[in-house]
Amino acid sequence: MARLPRVNPIEVVQHVIQRGNNRQICFASEQDFAGYVNWLKDYSKKYQVDIHAWVLMTNHVHLLCTPHNESSIGKMMQSLGRQYVRYFNYQYKRTGTLWEGRYKSCLVEAEDYLMHLYRYIELNPVRAGMVNDPAEYKWSSYQINGMGKESELCTPHEQYNRLARSKTERLESYRALFDAHVDGALLKDIRQATNKGMAIGSEMFKQQIEALTGRRMRPAKMGRPRLKDCDD
How many CB atoms lie within 10 A of CB 132? Predict the structure, then answer.
């Protein structure tokens, strides 16, 4: 079955996941994490992609980003993936693939859903039982977005800046969002949309994206189609 072309409207936020092949470990040392972050910074600048939030887990990566050109994210992920595989194979004296095929992604409605994605991404280490507080995990953007750590990688989204006028108040407001976890229906919707390459947002947002791209952005209705009544 032919793979569907990606939908990459410019200036629309995307949630991106890149997994290790068969869930294998992709980051085995501090040097691995640091190298990936450095190359992510370089290639995001080169291909004009704003990175708003990120987390590196041992066997997968989450990014929340906005492309400024239609092919920006694809080029960034391709270059980043190849660069890191070359490094990883050399470092651990191995050959072959590292990543699980194409990265997965979904479009995100910024106004009502973006901050949920920030939380979803930066709470990954907490959900995995690696830490109790996202601030304890070094390899995510939480220390930047929630604690004020300086970064050349992260670009705050407009919705993040709207949390408050001053930096101090903005950080406090952002940390307050993490008093509640992302769970239930919202967690299911985020995962489904990302795995199927659809959109997370209101019905109006999904309709607008469908009209713009000609691609379905919602799960198909289950069940067999009803037969029309006919006269004998």
Answer: 10
CA 10-181-126 angle, 5° bins: 95
The tokens describing 113, both together, are 């859903």
Q: Where is pLDDT greater, at 231 or 65? A: 65
Domain ranges of the chain: 13-202
Element (H, E) at 200: strand 199-200
Q: Is the pTM here over 0.85, yes or no?
A: yes
Residue 226 has pLDDT above 60, yes or no: no
Q: Which of these, 59, 206, 28, 186, lies nearest to 119 by C-alpha position?
A: 186
Fold of the domain built from segment(s) 13-202 = Alpha-Beta Plaits (3.30.70)
How do beta strands 104-108 and 199-200 pair?
parallel
* H/E element, 159: helix 158-161
> pLDDT (tens digit, 9 = 90+) per residue, 1-12?
445 567 789 999
